[in-house]
Amino acid sequence: MMNKKYTLIFALVLFSAMAVQSCSTRKGLVKKEGSKVYTTSDYYNMAMEQALVFEKSGYTDLDSYNVAESYFNKAILIEKGDADIWFNMGRLYFYVGEYSRSRECFKNAIKYRKSFVEAYSMLAKSYINDGNKDNALGVMLKANEVLPDNDAITNNTALVYIEMGNFNYARKLAEKIIKRNPRYIPAYITLGNIYYFQKNYEYARFIYMKALDEGADSGDIYTNLGLTVSKIEGKDRSYDLLKRGVEKSPNNPYTHLNLGEFLLSSGDYDNAINELKASLKINPRLVEALVNIGVAYTRVRLFEEAQASYDKAILYDPYYPEVYFNYGILLYDHMLKPKEALAMFKKYAAIKSGEIKSSHPVYRYIEEINKKTKVD
Prior knowledge:
Blueprint: E1 30-33, E2 36-39, H1 40-56, H2 62-78, H3 83-94, H4 99-112, H5 117-129, H6 133-146, H7 151-163, H8 167-180, H9 185-197, H10 201-213, H11 219-233, H12 239-248, H13 253-265, H14 269-282, H15 287-299, H16 303-316, H17 321-334, H18 338-351, H19 361-375
Antiparallel strand pairs: 1-2
Helix pairs in contact: 1-2, 2-3, 3-4, 4-5, 5-6, 5-7, 6-7, 7-8, 7-9, 8-9, 9-10, 9-11, 10-11, 11-12, 11-13, 12-13, 13-14, 13-15, 14-15, 15-16, 15-17, 16-17, 17-18, 18-19
């Protein structure tokens, strides 16, 4: 059982995966290493090359990560006031989960370039990933003061409000963007997502279709439209849209994730595993994909592979509740380890406290295991 449904793709304009930023003109400062002389640009470019290797490895090649970090630090020692260096070093830390270190870099990037849109947004995202939504909002509100009427800043502020559950204010911001710039597609995705979360699926579908009318041609739109259509017309009508989402955005892990979840719910476990593997190849730390592939592995009786996936999910996000529920099912129903399963179910119930009803299956499992343990 996977107690979680499909994941909408947000138009995270600047909260996206790692991408090499253009190198600004360095001041030409130099540093000697033995007989060689290196400029700031030399170190910066070498750091970016290794950062790209790290990205292409799915953020698993720690050698390239360490080399990139070293080159970034050398560049900073020569030219401390370079915002690009700080920003990209922050991204490097961000994608290994070093959010505190990434924040210091993003703050320095903003210090040396007050109008650095990407740095504000990545700084906010680092707070969100650490569970500090109030600080994330504070960053975006400050960005709005510095860069009023910037579409990307306004849209990402709306996304933070969504994270905080303030859908009404988020909707006003998205509508504000669309009114002044009808061709800014990310705002349509944000607005459509708001209606989706509010279960106003007809309005969500209308907004996504409007985005297509305005020229959107991204996998995000087709995937989110597919999820919405499944709510209105049933999941059988959504497959073609989800598939098109993958075709349009093959490098977006969420298009593969959502198609994989669809296939998993349809009982097509082999193809679900393939899509989820594709998602994890792009982003090995995507916890939703790790949990889903764990469920798929369980269904085809690859229990050790399922266990390994759940262990990785816990390593990357120890507060993601669904991993504990599904891990508990694996341990109890398939690996016959009731005590270990009980710990997982209790962890799930603790994290979801106040969000789940007493009729939730987790309490049946806990009661059943407790009875069995007493008998034994």
